[in-house]
Amino acid sequence: MGTERDGVHVLAPDLDGCAVGFPAYTLDAKSDTREVQLVAVHPEYQTRRIATKLCSPALRAMKKRGGTLARIETGGTPPMRPLAAPARRRASAASPLVRCLKEL
Predict the structure, then answer these.
(1) How much is the pLDDT for 23?
(2) In whole angstroms, how far apart are CA 48 and each of 55, 68, 88?
(3) Which mean pLDDT values do the consecutive 10-residue runs of the chain (104 residues) have?
(4) In b/e form, how buried is each residue of 56-78, taking b as 16+ CB within 10 angstroms?
(5) Using an 8 Å Cβ cutoff, are 31 and 69 in contact?
(6) Shortest CA distance to 69 belongs to which of 40, 26, 23?
(7) What pLDDT score does 83 carry?
(8) What domains lie within the chain, and their CATH numbers?
(9) Hey, how many other C-beta atoms are within 10 angstroms of the C-beta on 6?
């Protein structure tokens, strides 16, 4: 299931019969770079790589619509810390924001 409003697309894929989260992403035709703006996962399902599964359909849609690069950003909230930790160890200054780029 998906919807689009003001250029932001939201997917709510079903995992094991339950909607456990969603990605929100843009398909800006002015750039080859697409952006996942938000990935939300229900607290009971966090730290199980569910966000990766939720993003897969969005990444396929981005590629289908001509994107060559996807940008995904995450903050420093507790569920995001495992993703952000490797980048923080290599950074010269601490920041709660981590930007990941993925070729499509």
Answers:
(1) 83
(2) 14, 27, 21
(3) 70 76 80 83 81 84 88 66 55 62 84
(4) eebbebbeeeebeebbbebeeee
(5) no
(6) 26
(7) 54
(8) 2-103 (3.40.630.30)
(9) 5
Q: How do strand 21-26 and strand 33-41 relate by DSSP bridges? A: antiparallel
In degrees, to the nearest 5, what angle opens at C-alpha 40 toward C-alphas 37 and 42?
180
Determine contact, residues 36/72, Cβ cutoff 8 Å.
yes
Residue 27 is predicted with a pLDDT of: 77
Amino acid code (one letter) for 32: D
Q: Would you give the DSSP letter of residue 49?
A: S
The residue whose two tokens read 């689009």 is: 4
Sheet strands side by side (includes 2-5): 2-5, 8-11, 21-26, 33-41, 69-74, 98-103
Per the structure block, which two tokens stand in for 83? 């993703």
CA dihedral 38, 39, 41, 47 (to 10 degrees): -130
